[in-house]
């Protein structure tokens, strides 16, 4: 059974930082492309960042230079370091694993507000 468990969300002031974690089980993690997506209130889910098994990384234009995705294959965990957070970053953040099929976590809420 595949499980992706996100943690690290919360309320933060504009300009602040958060680090999201996603612990995976039930997949061969080192072979998976791991990603972070988000769904702002009233909007569709969108890609934030991807990291492939080989370590190639892609970011959406809206987070380049502020967010950093990384993975620890020994811990079966992917991270998203979010700096210089803006109110527009408010969303539910979802972890995704792609190993031929897509698997999703349940999401963690990030709210950026003063």
Number of strands: 11
Q: Tell me the β content.
A: over 45%
Largest sheet: 7 strands, mixed
Give me the secondary-structure category.
mainly beta
Q: Report how far the terminal alpha carbons are from each other.
A: 40 Å
Quaternary structure of the protein: single chain
- Can you give the mean pLDDT? 97
In terms of per-residue confidence, which ranges show pLDDT below 50 for 5 or more consecutive residues? none
Summarize the amount of helix as a percent range.
under 10%
Number of helical runs? 0
Radius of gyration: 13 Å
The secondary-structure element order is: EEEEEEEEEEE
Shape: globular
Question: What report would you give on this structure?
Answer:
This protein is mostly beta strands and about 110 residues long. About 0% of the residues lie in helices and about 55% in strands. It has no helices and 11 strands.
Identify the notable features of this structure and list them briefly.
single chain, 114 residues, mainly beta, 7-stranded mixed sheet, 4-stranded antiparallel sheet, globular
Q: In summary, what is this structure?
A:
The protein has 114 residues and is an all-beta fold.
Topology of helices and strands:
Layout: E1 3-7, E2 10-12, E3 18-25, E4 33-39, E5 46-51, E6 57-59, E7 67-72, E8 77-82, E9 91-99, E10 101-104, E11 108-112
Parallel strand pairs: 2-11
Antiparallel strand pairs: 1-3, 3-8, 4-5, 4-9, 5-6, 7-8, 9-10, 9-11
